[in-house]
Each structure stands twice: as structure tokens, then as C-alpha cells.
Please model this.
Amino acid sequence: MLIYQVLAIIASIALIVEMALAIRFAPKEIRKAYLLPTILQLFSIFILIEQAKLIPYIIPHEIITGFSYFFSLYLTYTAVIAITGVGKKHRILFSVLWSTAAVIFWITSFFA
Model:
């Protein structure tokens, strides 16, 4: 069980770093568009921490599992988009962060 908690912390850190870098590198006009993805990622961190049993369940386990699979698919899709991105910085930096978070979400979805 400890491995899932460590993985959840690693994925949470990866998502937080990704959010901060994405907002930092975005032009000022586009930064407002990052509000919804930021809220989604914060909610996904909450789901991951609950799935890894770092905090007690607030939402029923079945719903948490469903959300966990949803965010696994969402992060996998985003990782593929980042890998096929046009910018070199986007491909190198963000694809690693998204891929790490996606793999950890899949692991905790199936095994935690």
C-alpha cells in the first residue's frame, strides 16, 4: 500500500509542476483559458490522493474508481497530444510530466 501513496505523491507533484509551467509559458492573453484545466487537475489530484488512501474516502469508493479511470484516460490523451506537439519544449518537458502522471493514474486505478 505504501507504493501507491508514494506514486500518488509523485503524480501530484508532476501535475502541479505541469500546471505552473504551462501557465508560466503561456502568453498573458491565453492564461485565462488555463482556469478549467487547472481546476480539473486539482480535482484529479484529490481523486488520486483518495484512491491511494492518503485521506479517508469522502466520496464513495465506486465513484472514486470511476473518476480515476476517467482521469487516467484524460491524462493519457493529454500525454499523446503533448508527445505529438509542435514545440520542442512542449514535447520534451510536458510529455514527460503528462506521461508520468498518466502511468501512475493507471497503476492506482487498477491496483489500489
User: Anything to note?
Assistant: The two ends are 8 Å apart (CA to CA). The first helix runs from residue 2 to 25.
